[in-house]
Amino acid sequence: MTVDGRADGTTSAQRAAVPARPRGRNVRWAVISALTVLTITSYLDRGNLSVAAPVIREDLGFSATQMGLVLSAFVWPYAIMNLPAGWAIDRFGPKVIMTVAAVLWSIAGAATGLARSVASFLGLRVVLGMAEAPLFPGALKATDQWFPDHEKARATSVYIAATQVGLAIAPPITTALLIAVDWELMFVLVGALGLIGVLCWWLAYEKPSRHRRVTREELDYIEQNQSNAPAVAEGAPGVGRQWVRLFRYPTIWAMIIGGFCLQYVFWFYITWLPSYLESAQHFSISAAGLLSALPYLAGGVAVVLGGRFSDMLVRRGMRPMDARRRTIAGGSLLTAIALGATALSTSAAMAVTLLTAGMFTYSLTTASYWALASDVAETSRMVGSIGSIQNFGGFLGGAFAPIATGMIVDRLGGFVPALVVAALLLLVSVVSYGFLVRRRLPV
Q1: 442/331: higher pLDDT
Q2: Which of 40, 239, 310, 411 is deepest in the core (most CB within 10 A)?
Q3: Cα 432 to Cα 261: distance, rounded to the nearest angstrom
Q4: Cα within 13 Å of Cα(215), Cβ side
Q5: CB distance 372 to 321 below 8 Å
């Protein structure tokens, strides 16, 4: 390894000389488009329950703590299943696994409209969480295969921005369906949309070397500008042993802790933002549904900006791993400040503005969060596993956020302590990514 941490021996000056993009057809962006559609449909299924939660609580008589349990039920199995999902993606490839998973989560989302008890809601959300676990490890693997270093964060930002789009359109769509029909039929209709994403993914994706529409020029552009060594063929043995060895590295544990803190905050937004606007800021359900879209719209813009900023640092000669982790640390610090200010806000308009600013700065981190998983290893063989392990830690935080927030609201009488906890966790993320994630993994 060279002094700048690069395994392939290239210098900063060489890395800065980014080659021209191939002309004509660029199949890699069609793959990203398919991932984007798949991501939007999955996030509609994730986000619709939080908007419908007040109506469901009134209709079925659930307490805030019970609703917190239901809201967190998706995240626990999602977090746990990230571990085998990443291994499976590295072992067998993303195409079939992600297709089966998307069909299953669409069915589970639609069936939520039939639930009537806490137990039935819990069961269906568990299935939804398990089924959606392969989505981002698979997307990361596909992006790592199809993109050179200086485009990875930008490409990742497109389908990560789709998560914000899904969350942004979920409140108004769900609110409109709640008013037009009922919450039961709303779940059925939203779940059925997932089949569109499945079709797009199945038709668009194949490995670059096997894709019938990729040109030699585009394939050379991809392969000659990747810093991690190419992976062995999908299905090759040995992935399981290397997966276990990943946990020996301090970098992996720092990514797990940092991811925990980041996703705790994201799931605070996803699961409790409409309720916060209704109960703490006294907006109506229709106003809360519309205002809940603002942070995600801002976040969608910030995801793309954050990805471009990170790739710009790479083009200017910064080691890809450093560009990613510094972007994450900076965005986390700004978000901690925004949430702390929200806890001290004195008006509803100020609270909405600060929460929107907080999601904007948070979202600057998300493309780099995923791109880091591909840049931290010296070979692409275990990219899916590294991404899923980081996301396992992240969704442990996401699993704690809904129920912890519900308990804080019930026992401490409001959302101010919950905002303070979220801000403090973001400072832990700053330390993890800013100071502890420093060495590439010789996987």
Answers
A1: 331
A2: 310
A3: 10
A4: 10
A5: yes
Rounded distance between C-alpha atoms, residue 272 and residue 75, angstroms: 14
Task: Give yes or no for a contact between 73 and 126, defined as CB atoms under 8 angstroms apart.
Answer: yes
Strand-pairing partners, residue 441, are 377
CA distance 65 to 70: 9
Rounded to the nearest 10 degrees, the angle between the axes of helix 293-315 and helix 348-363 is 30
pLDDT for 13 beyond 70: no
Task: Please name which of 369, 358, 368 lies closest in space to residue 335, comparing C-alpha atoms.
Answer: 358
Amino acid at the residue 122: L
Tens of pLDDT, residue by residue over 174-195, are: 778 878 888 888 888 888 888 8
Stated pTM of the model? 0.70
Instruction: Specify the pLDDT at position 1.
Output: 32
| Dihedral (CA of 414, 415, 419, 425) sign | positive
**Residue position matching structure tokens 């919950």:** 418
Span 12-28, average pLDDT: 59
In the chain, the domains with their CATH numbers are 26-436 (1.20.1250.20)
* pLDDT of 6: 39
Q: Model confidence at 3, in pLDDT bands (50, 70, 90)?
A: very low
CB 264 within 8 A of CB 72: no
